[in-house]
Design brief:
This protein is mostly helical. The protein has helices at about 1-5, 10-25, 30-40, 45-60, 65-75, 80-90, 95-110, 115-125, 130-145, 145-160, 165-175, 180-195, 200-210, 215-230, 235-245, 250-260, 265-280, 285-295, 300-315, 315-330, 410-420, 435-445, 455-460, 460-470, 475-485, 490-505, 510-525, 535-560, 565-580, 580-595, 600-610, 615-630, 635-645, and strands spanning about 345-350, 360-365, 395, 405, 425-430.
């Protein structure tokens, strides 16, 4: 079933089935291999490597596993390990051209250009028109600083693959480096004709057209890049400069503001925005930007000069005089005439942040050895992932089996509830589906609704519908179920009343304390739902303090009564993480996973904690494990943080 899902490109379902196969037979080497392949397609390279290694421990004689792990290790930049895998595979399958090519690729990445060249010659000896070999020969030539030899291999490639986009792009890049802008424009236009979504070609052609003073055409290319990659920094920055140059000041300001939202410390974007704000009459905005620049560069004399001029325009004579005093003391008055804008023919690398280069286009750092890194890595998950935590476990109506969590400490109480109300479980609140689940649960269990937007008064009708069942339950259980039903319809203050009753009825119930802590956390997050929604700030602050005291007291009591229950630590970790108290959250997630090594939600949330503390390398294995255990948005996030890293 898992292999059938793989053949249908349903990698998530495949992992689910391979998990069951491995659980049934832990020594099944191929199950690990195929699960590793599914993870590889999802770009969970850490998890894929782990599965491949386990498969080889169980059966070291399957060549395909070495080939897969080699690809995985290339994506992890472990070229030494990948080279070892390809060498092992080739000892049994010496005619595998793909493996031989990847072996040469790893040698090049390890700067072993001589060995790489000899190995790729073996590829060409067996397959004279293997186009990737021509690209790799070009890379080797570039690494050895022999650009002309690289061009020779590119031209040879184009004789039998005239539509090879990478080859035309390389020729365009070379012509651009030589300032042969007409040739560069022509070559890059050809590359774009063969691949209209190749944003790198558009970026390079914009540079060439800038060199030809075709500013409107260059702006059009940057527009296209942003259509393909909306958050492309270089395209936004360079488009802003060109818009400023052609007098489109308002849209230039939009681009610089967008950049500063993402990179508040980008001094060149701030300098350009200050100049534009001053030019368009937004003197207060210009003052704000010049002030930020002066904080970063206290000796930026032109900043004082320009801010003084803006302050005079706004009537701030005292501030203007203070700035003019700084300028006068510098005794460099003649040097402070506003720099005349130059033609945008010079470019700088993105890392060049010198203020005198404020009017130059930028380009990414060149990495010649990776221009033609053409390793097929399979399909990926491109959904934008959020870094929202998965919420605490709480008593909830059962929606899907994978959401439930049964604990021996609570199973008796759950059984009492289920006799009257059917499936009820402890569920972790999944933020991306919370609203859908709450609406679905209310409709499914208590009434049939025709609208997705039922109001609260309609939802509260469930109290009447379930009252007979509630009355037959013991007092403490009745209070628990009423708190659950109220919370699931966002009647949080009503839920808290019932939760307090449950604690009063049975103060030794761990579930009652956890349930109340969860409800109070929700009240704290949604102050509009509480009785102090319209109160003044001091009252709200006092209420928030009371909420936190209740939460901490309930967790302390739950831990005292059930020190070995992982849900206590998981829920408290969520509370700490929501307060950005990462150290305490991490300690509790660690403890939860010690007690239950298969708690997927804890792996996912601990990964989020690592991301927020700048430890992506530790987040990756946790997210990989969370994905394997069923939290599939972890794969989206894995790809995202791998790119950010």
């Amino acid at each position: 079933m898992g292999r059938s899902a793989l053949s249908a490109d349903d990698n998530i379902t495949a992992i689910h089935y391979f998990n069951q196969a491995i659980q049934a037979r832990p020594s099944h080497a191929l199950a690990y291999y195929f699960r590793g392949y599914a993870k590889f397609i999802l770009e969970d390279f850490h998890g894929a490597e782990t599965d491949c290694s386990r498969s080889l421990e169980l059966n070291p004689y399957v060549i395909d596993v070495y080939l897969l792990r080699g690809l995985v290790r290339i994506n992890l930049a472990d070229y030494k390990g990948a080279l070892a895998d390809y060498t092992q595979a080739l000892s049994d399958a010496p005619d595998d051209i793909g493996a031989r090519f990847n072996q040469a690729y790893c040698m090049l990445q390890l700067k072993e250009t001589g060995r790489a060249d000899s190995t790729v010659n073996m590829v060409l000896g067996r397959s004279p028109h293997y186009y990737r070999a021509f690209m790799l020969k070009t890379q080797i030539a570039l690494e050895e600083k022999d650009t002309l030899r690289g061009l020779h291999w590119i031209d040879s490639l184009l004789t039998f693959r005239p539509r090879e986009v990478g080859a035309w792009q390389f020729k365009g890049q070379y012509a651009l480096d030589q300032k042969e802008y007409v040739k560069a424009d022509s070559f890059l236009t050809t590359a774009i004709r063969y691949d209209g979504n190749n944003f790198d070609a558009y970026l390079l052609r914009a540079m060439a057209r800038n060199g030809l003073n075709l500013f409107d055409d260059a702006i059009a290319d940057y527009n296209r890049v942003i259509e393909i990659v909306p958050q492309h920094f270089v395209a936004h920055y360079n488009r802003a400069l060109l818009r400023s140059l052609v007098g489109d000041d308002n849209r230039a300001l939009e681009d610089f503001s967008y950049i500063l939202q993402r990179e508040p410390d980008n001094t060149l974007a701030r300098y350009n925005r200050a100049l534009l704000r001053e030019r368009t009459g937004d003197f207060q905005g210009a003052i704000t930007d010049y002030t930020e620049l002066i904080k970063s560069y206290p000796n930026f004399i032109y900043g004082y000069y320009a801010r003084a001029a803006c302050r005079r325009k706004t009537g701030d004579i005292r501030g203007a005089l203070a700035d003019e005093t700084v300028v006068a003391r510098s005794q460099l008055d003649l040097a402070f005439a506003r720099p005349k804008k130059k033609a945008y023919k010079e470019v700088r690398q993105r890392s060049d942040l010198a203020l005198e280069h404020y009017d130059r286009l930028i380009e990414e750092e060149k990495d010649t050895a990776r221009i033609f890194g053409d390793i097929v890595i399979g399909k990926v998950q491109n959904t934008k992932a959020t870094q929202d935590l998965i919420g605490p476990f709480q008593l909830a109506l059962h929606i899907e089996p994978s959401y439930g969590y049964h604990s021996n400490a609570y199973i008796d109480q759950l059984d009492l509830l289920q006799k009257e109300f059917g499936p009820i479980e402890l569920q972790a609140e999944r933020s991306e589906t919370k609203d859908r689940i709450l609406r679905k649960s209310a409709r499914k269990i208590f009434f049939t609704a025709e609208s997705e937007q039922e109001d609260i008064s309609h939802l509260n009708a469930h109290n009447e519908l379930v009252r007979p069942g509630v009355e037959r339950l013991p007092r403490q259980v009745r209070a628990l179920v009423l708190s659950m039903l109220s919370r699931q319809t966002y009647a949080l203050t009503e839920a808290l009343t019932h939760a307090n009753e449950a604690v009063a009825a049975d103060s030794a119930s761990v579930l009652a304390h956890l349930n109340r802590a969860t409800i109070v956390m929700a009240l704290e997050r949604n102050t509009h739902a509480g009785p102090f929604a319209n109160a003044d700030t001091n009252q709200q602050t006092a209420q928030a303090k009371d909420y936190r005291q209740t939460i901490e007291a309930d967790f302390a009591k739950a831990q005292e009564m059930a020190p070995a229950n992982p849900l206590v630590y998981y829920n408290r970790a969520y509370y700490y993480a929501s307060l950005s108290n990462w150290a305490k959250a991490l300690a509790d997630y660690n403890r939860a996973l010690e007690l239950d090594p298969r708690m997927a939600e804890a792996y996912f949330n601990r990964g989020i904690v690592y991301i927020n503390t700048g430890k992506n390398e530790l987040a990756i294995p946790d997210l990989s494990k969370a994905g394997e255990l069923g939290i599939y948005r972890a794969y989206n996030l894995l790809k995202q943080i791998r790119i950010d890293k």
